[in-house]
Automatic annotation (TrEMBL):
Pfam families: CTP_transf_like (PF01467), PfkB (PF00294). Keywords: ATP-binding, Carbohydrate metabolism, Kinase, Multifunctional enzyme, Nucleotide-binding, Nucleotidyltransferase, Transferase. The active site is at 268. This is Bifunctional protein HldE. It catalyses: D-glycero-beta-D-manno-heptose 7-phosphate + ATP = D-glycero-beta-D-manno-heptose 1,7-bisphosphate + ADP + H(+); D-glycero-beta-D-manno-heptose 1-phosphate + ATP + H(+) = ADP-D-glycero-beta-D-manno-heptose + diphosphate. ATP binds at residues 199-202. Homodimer.
């Protein structure tokens, strides 16, 4: 999981599917029409965003991926809107125009944040054979420029049986995974994909199996794998998480949503986040955990929403299940974390030390340091560094143990082990707002004070030190 969040690689992902415009007319209602018993909406604002496969694209861009878009649209004004909305992002579009086809546009009239009515303008019939050939030809040209392919099927006719099979075959020839958010009941058309992401209801319809127990869940996963000849089988279970069948073993990754306001677009977020994660790692279980976190963020928002890596990491840190290990970072990782915190206008506090045998003096010092800002980052001397400073008999506890104990403290947000004699290089990476040292540095040079905005000295608790603790243990 951490490999996904901290990886600096920027994946390149191709999305193929049904594009549409989500059109919103926002207004207020304070009267009923005299012509008919309907509301009169006073329109005050109008917005347009990418919909359908566009939701997947938006989520991938929000996560930081490079994105390509391959689809078929009509030769109409709505297609121009689609192209404009894609061009306004960093995505690269490969749009095939088909004369006579209506590009999908879903218009919603909204009053006081509630949807009053929706009207659609679209073609639902399959794209032409000519368009199919053009999509396939374009895919042959660009497939090797992408790490992975996502198919977002909204049942509007782009992903026909023929085209879907041709996409999967060319992807396999080029060693590219294909992940599909399916539509309808004919899952055989996705045969050969890496896996599908149906929700529970969709899986029940496709397999004919009512999912109401662990046994029926296993049966449905097996049937999906059989029907679509999948590498592995996945079913999203809403508030119960995501289930996967891999190597004949069923694993359910539980949901991590704290509050659910709106599930609109959650399926698109799951598809995008799984694709993003699997372009970083082949660990499906880490990818599922990542997707669960992403969905947990999105369902806490109103309307179709996107999610960022920062939001996922922040969200994970707030969960009760957040592990102690999450707060232990490498020097490389802490630079990225600090950059994110600065963007959020967090006041970063930094201090460092050996913290060999943790005692009241340490805890009091760290607690007082944390009170100076929002985030406390502790630089921890490695074992080799401690030996150079304290002698061959130190440290008593190795740096892994010391880091674990420190990161368990409520006042400590992150711990970073460093091997140098001084933390100067680490402080350069963190760029703290406040640098904290003990009061015994009064009148002395504090390493890193030229980098931090402010340096604060904090008194120690009298009579409390690691040396005195060791002496007491030894009976001196």
């Amino acid at each position: 999981m951490e490999r996904i969040l901290q990886n600096e690689k920027k994946p390149n992902i191709l999305v193929i599917g049904d594009l549409m415009v989500d059109h919103y007319l926002w207004g207020t209602c304070d009267r009923i029409s005299p012509e008919a018993p309907v509301q009169i909406i006073d329109i005050q604002n109008e917005t347009k965003v990418l919909g359908g496969a566009g939701n997947v694209i938006s989520n991938l861009l929000s996560l930081g991926a490079d994105v390509g878009v391959l689809s078929v649209v009509g030769d109409d004004s709505v297609a121009e809107e689609v192209k404009y909305l894609i061009d306004a992002t960093d995505a690269k579009s490969f749009l095939i125009l088909q004369k006579g086809r209506k590009t999908s546009k879903k218009s919603r009239i909204m009053a006081s944040k509630s949807q009053v009515v929706r009207y659609d303008h679209e073609s639902k019939n399959n794209i032409s054979f000519e368009s199919t050939d053009k999509v396939y030809a374009k895919l042959q040209q660009i497939v090797n420029g992408y790490d992975l392919i996502l198919l977002s099927d909204y049942g509007k006719g782009v992903l026909t049986n023929d085209l879907t099979q041709r996409i999967i075959k060319i992807a396999k020839l080029n060693n590219k995974k294909v992940i599909v958010d399916p539509k309808g009941t004919n899952y055989a058309k996705y045969s050969g994909a890496y896996f599908l992401t149906p929700n529970k209801k969709e899986a029940e319809v496709a397999t004919g199996i009512k999912i109401d127990s662990s046994d029926s869940l296993r049966d449905a996963l097996k049937e999906l794998q059989k029907i679509a000849n999948l590498e592995m089988s996945v079913i999203t279970l809403s508030e119960d998480g995501i289930a996967v069948l891999k190597d004949k073993e069923v694993t359910v990754k539980p949901t991590v949503a704290k509050e659910v306001f709106d599930v609109t677009g959650a399926g698109d977020t799951v598809l995008a986040s799984l694709g993003y994660a699997l372009s970083m790692t082949d660990d499906i279980y880490a990818a599922l955990e990542f997707a669960n976190l992403a969905a947990g963020v999105v369902v806490g928002k109103l309307g179709s929403a996107t999610v960022t890596l920062d939001e996922i990491e922040d969200y994970k840190a707030t969960l009760h299940k957040s592990s102690i290990d999450l707060h232990i970072k490498t020097v490389k990782e802490i630079k990225k974390v600090a950059k994110r915190l600065r963007k959020q206008n967090k006041k970063i506090i930094f201090t460092n030390g050996c913290f060999d045998i943790l005692h009241k003096g340490h805890v009091s010092y760290l607690n007082n340091a944390k009170a100076l800002g929002d985030i406390l980052i502790v630089g921890l001397n490695s074992d080799d560094s401690v030996r150079r400073l304290k002698g061959e008999n130190r440290p008593i506890n190795n740096h892994d143990d010391r880091a674990y104990i420190l990161s368990a403290l409520e006042c400590v947000d992150y711990v970073v082990i460093f091997d140098e004699d001084t933390p100067y290089e680490l402080i350069q990476r963190v760029k703290p707002d406040v640098l904290v040292k003990g009061a015994d540095y009064e009148g002395k040079e504090v390493i890193g004070s030229d980098i931090a905005k402010e340096t604060v000295l904090i008194d120690f608790v009298e009579g409390k030190s690691t040396t005195s603790t060791i002496e007491k243990i030894l009976g001196k």
